[in-house]
Amino acid sequence: MKDRYITSNVISPFAFCAIFMCGAMDVCHDAHAQSCGQSDNVNFSFTSPPKIEILESDSARWSTDAAIRFSYIGEWCPIPEDITFEDETGTPIPAVIYFRTTTQLVENGPLSPQVALLKPLMSLEISTDYTLTLSPPNPALAMYSDYTLNFRTARGSLEVDYNQFEGAQTVEIDGNLCEGEGLYLSDPENFDCIVPSFLQLKVGFRALPNHEVSYLIYRVSSTPSDPDAGLDLIDDVERPVAFLPGVSEERSQRSVQVSFPVLYAPFPREECFKVVALDEWGRERAGFDQITCATLGKPSACSDAQFPEPNPFENTPPIEGVTCETVGINGASANTPIPQVMEEEPMEEESMEEESMEESSGGGDDEGCEQSSNSRSLLALLLIALSMGISRIRSRKEGALGLV
Question: What is the mean pLDDT of residues 381-393?
Fold first, then answer.
């Protein structure tokens, strides 16, 4: 049975503030709240390694067996012709690109970017410069038409102790609600883009000191505490809601926080989350058993304003993201499977002793056995010949003395 570590952070009712304190409604609305009018053109969100000039002091030196990640928002599923990956001599590097997307918990709410993992099928050369160029056919800006990432590799491969990762530690509302932060209220007059009211939560955790490791945040469950609440409001399916690229060793000394939206209602309810660490193949390696929860209490008046009542019609179901198909470039097959994580097993003393004996006897193969057998046969022939020679000499001496 998996261990489950739960901390319950109760959000005080006083922490909820009527948005009407802001005066004008549009002042309180999050500028990124409405995704209805989101352009289909491509915007790049981040790259990992970061898009920094190679000679800059904070430029990352990427491990030779690590993956390269990039994320974007927009309607684009890359084809091989859209992606160029080569070394400093212009030699194409075979690689496979795997895609991952998140679940949208708020209909028409903020969009999470799609994340792509580009995994070279060969170890990169040490201390070598590489160039990745992304060319979507529908860039939102000219700077995204041939989006180029240059990076230099480190002097070795990736070494990570995933046992050090402690997973999710805190979950809370992102901001001061009484100041209009961490909250978006639906605009009933905006019929062209109806966005349900939602809260902005944030999960905190300590990242590993390896910038090649990335992180995926899951909502494990959402459970209303009201016994009269309908079963359709309970969501016990693990859903990926946010993604974070790796951080530098210096940044890993402090807690990092990832923000994402959840529906405003119903109240009260418990929201539980976990953070998993992903390796160079995108495999989940740590953090899956450590779950942190927050109880969202029933809102009440804040100052002299009244908090609006939840609208049950805004309790829309989660929307699963659409993920692009795997792509192979520069001769790599799109059907390349992701290898299983193999645990290294220590060699037993007996097998090590046997191997040592085989090495000392010229190896354990048939050729070694044949050489050993031939050596023994040759020695026996030499001994027989020597014995026959001695016998003949003695016979001659005895004949000369008249003893025969």
Answer: 52
